[in-house]
Amino acid sequence: MNLEIFKNQNWEIRVLDKAGEFWFVASDVAKILGYARTGSAIDCHCKRQRTASKQNGGFMSIIPESDIYRLIARSKLPSAEKFESWVMEEILPSIRKHGLCATPQKIKELVENPDLIIEIAQKLKTELKEKEMLKQLFEIEQPRIQFAKTIEGSDSNISMGQMAKLNGKIGRNKLFSKLREVKILMNNNIPYQNYLDRGYFKLSEVIITRTKGDVLQPVTLVTGKGQLWLNNKIDQWVLNN
Question: Contact at 8 Å (CB) between 62 and 26?
Fold first, then answer.
């Protein structure tokens, strides 16, 4: 199992040749993409994580190309797209052009076992198909990622009508109805206490003028944290309908 280090002026990443398939050191990728808790990020987002032994002893997590794109798609760093370009346009073409001929042992395997060439070609075909699917997924996820970056850390609280406009996939009245249906809001459109405690909503008061005099009426507002959470909820509801 051969290890190669790729470097440019910004990053350094280790790549392993594991039986003709190329795996990347997961911690290198996660650190480059700005994940503070690299282990948690890898466990949460990577589907094909494996363990490999280090040359100096111990073990390290490695991931295939497909999991790199999963980490890229969820990174909050503006440089994530540049890293993706470096991987796709420089590292992978270099590996595919030179990687199979890197050692005399690999050449000997190919000469003695022509079926290995077919196996490698089939793996490459599968990998390219998976990369195209992930590229499409990344393009689908981009609006959601941009939405998250736009309101991340926002201190502004918005009304339910503004939330519906922000998401753009559901109307205000339908949103209220759905939130009552799934027991997030009570019948009076006030959130249940546990959702207030989680910081998704805040209550404000408005003055309502009536014939018997002005009264204060509570109004539900969606916090910045709640906007991210509720946007994902709405997308799931729309997708399942």
Answer: yes
Q: Which of 24-28, 124-128, 206-210, 237-241 has the lowest mean pLDDT?
A: 124-128
Q: How far is CA 46 from CA 100, 126, 158, in A?
A: 25, 18, 34
What pLDDT, on a 0 to 100 scale, did the predictor assign at position 30?
93
The tokens describing 172, both together, are: 């205000």
Provide the 3-class DSSP secondary structure of residue 216. strand
What is residue 79's DSSP assignment?
Answer: T
Assign 3-state DSSP to the chain and report helix, strand, coil percentages, each to 5: 55, 20, 25
* pLDDT of the residue at 2: 65
Domain boundaries, the chain: 2-151, 158-240
Q: Is the CB of residue 29 less than 8 Å from the CB of residue 71?
A: yes
The token pair that represents 156 in the structure block? 């502004």
